[in-house]
Amino acid sequence: MRSVFYISDQTGITTEKLGTALLIKFPHVELRKDSFPFSNTPSKIRQILLKVRNRYMIDGYKPLIISSMVDPELRKLLKVDYATHLDFFESFIAPLELALDTKAVMSSGKIHSIGDQDKYNHRIEAIHYSLENDDGVSAKHYEEADLIVVGVSRVGKTPTSIFLAVNYGIKVANYPLAEDDLEHPSLPKILVPFHHKLFGLSIEVEKLHTIRSNRLPGSRYAKIETCKHEIAAAERIMHNSGVPFLNTSHKSIEEISVAMMQIVKLTRQF
Question: What is the pTM of this model?
Fold first, then answer.
């Protein structure tokens, strides 16, 4: 097992995303990951380096330090002989300055700060909307939706809806196709006026069975026969109604979200 330390002087979200994008190319390597956001003082860096050194002594391998430090003095502290250090600013800023023929403005906190207040407010509004219109709790605001996600229970509607709201500012409602809905070959009446906003999610029977069994083991809800029946009925409704849909079995939330946006031609709203 190899150790990875994500270190950032801000939230660390971007650092982890970029680091993960690189490390996913090494699926045969087992990784132990630790994150240290807001590491913005020499004291904090030194405390983290003690952990890095201890991990090196225990593992016998140099840990990886993946960082995005704006302050060059803090960046220097991370250059230790008992770890391999990858810094995104150091790797990419110099080539970009050369290509763009201008110096970078190295101020911290721009990516995940509030920035444009109107855009920030729009994103928060989209998040509130998606939470308030989760799992068919209310259909009275569907006319405000950019997208309405449909599918059986535990197919990934809620996490996909929230991801789209947080990352793209898209107002997403989601409607679970319940037992009564699945008895009919067409869309539930409540969804008919919003046909142009619908997008369906489906899943493989075994995958749904596993997810439901982890949630409610031994229940009728989790039985493979129930899963098989519900998926077939849901896909029949979507086929009959001309609702586009994706199988989520082997896709991440990011992949599902981007594919949905491409299919229905939605763009980022902030």
Answer: 0.69
Mean pLDDT value across residues 204-232: 96
Length of the chain: 270
Contact 32, 4 (CB under 8 A): yes
pLDDT digits (tens, 9 = 90+) for 104-147: 876 655 544 445 677 778 888 988 999 889 877 667 789 999 99
55 φ/ψ sector (left φ>0, alpha ψ -120 to 50, else beta): alpha
- Count Cβ atoms below 10 Å from residue 197 Cβ, excluding itself: 19
From CA 39, how far away is CA 19, in angstroms rounded?
A: 17
Listed in order, the ranges of the chain carrying CATH 3.40.50 are: 2-100, 117-264
Q: Write the CA distances from 35 to 4, 115, 229, integer angstroms.
A: 8, 25, 43
User: Partners of 6 in the beta sheet?
Assistant: 35, 66
> Of 17, 3, 15, which Cα lies nearest the Cα of 39?
15
CATH topology of domain 117-264: Rossmann fold (3.40.50)
| Per-residue tokens: 216 | 């409610």
